[in-house]
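User: quick one, sequence for these tokens?
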């Protein structure tokens, strides 16, 4: 009888250890690694290779005069239906191109400008001082965290940046925590379905791929505004 009890205890401990190790193994398996393409990092999520990050050296491209014509930013902002009390987070804010367009509309609210590059954040800080807009809060993010308070954000905007996240699962989980229950994510990406759009392949996404990744991380597609010249504007909410 003692031998049987001992065997049961050993079996239980072994099973517990296996169950504890399993989540770690799954976390490691969510990404795969292969030889990288010229514009990628060799890391794949759900069949999509993650692209290289555009460095701060690309600020001039972000602020190019023809951007409004190419992307119809005014229409994008209009579709966000920003109210004065909104709290908005621009994830991967870059030079703050969209930050300084949304902040005046959220006049009684707050806009978080989140980026991982100090050079980008410094540019936003300088522009903030120049314009005198005081409802902008600059946040240094990381590869895995947006570093925002839990359930603090009404709207999250990501423009041509999600495809560069080295850890998309962790970033989506972090954004999900920061988003209020009825909050929305506005995912803007160049349309991967259209080969005529003059953007490198890894810097585009199809609706199908985006939905697959967001569904796997607790989001559902509410609508896709097909009104921008080259980009999807997909609106996601928590499931």
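Assistant:
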């Amino acid at each position: 009888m003692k031998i049987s009890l001992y065997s049961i205890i050993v079996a239980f401990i072994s099973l517990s250890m296996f169950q504890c190790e399993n989540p770690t193994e799954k976390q490691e398996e969510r990404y795969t690694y292969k030889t990288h393409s010229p514009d990628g990092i060799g890391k794949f999520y759900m069949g999509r290779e993650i692209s290289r990050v555009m460095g701060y050296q690309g600020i001039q491209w972000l602020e190019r005069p023809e951007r409004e014509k190419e992307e119809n930013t005014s229409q994008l902002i209009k579709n966000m239906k920003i109210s004065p009390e909104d709290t908005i987070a621009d994830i991967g804010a870059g030079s703050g191109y969209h930050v300084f367009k949304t902040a005046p509309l959220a006049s009684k609210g707050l806009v978080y400008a989140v980026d991982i590059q100090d050079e980008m954040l410094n540019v936003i800080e300088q522009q903030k001082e120049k314009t005198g807009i005081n409802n902008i809060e600059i946040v240094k993010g990381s590869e895995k965290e947006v570093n925002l308070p839990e359930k603090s954000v009404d709207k999250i905007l990501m423009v041509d940046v999600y495809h560069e996240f080295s850890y998309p699962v962790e970033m989506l989980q972090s954004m999900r925590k920061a988003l209020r229950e009825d909050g929305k994510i506005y995912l803007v990406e160049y349309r991967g379905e259209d080969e005529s759009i003059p953007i490198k392949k890894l810097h585009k996404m199809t609706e199908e791929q985006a939905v697959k990744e967001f569904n796997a991380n607790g989001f559902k597609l509410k609508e896709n505004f097909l009104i921008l010249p080259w980009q999807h504007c997909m609106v996601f909410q928590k499931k």
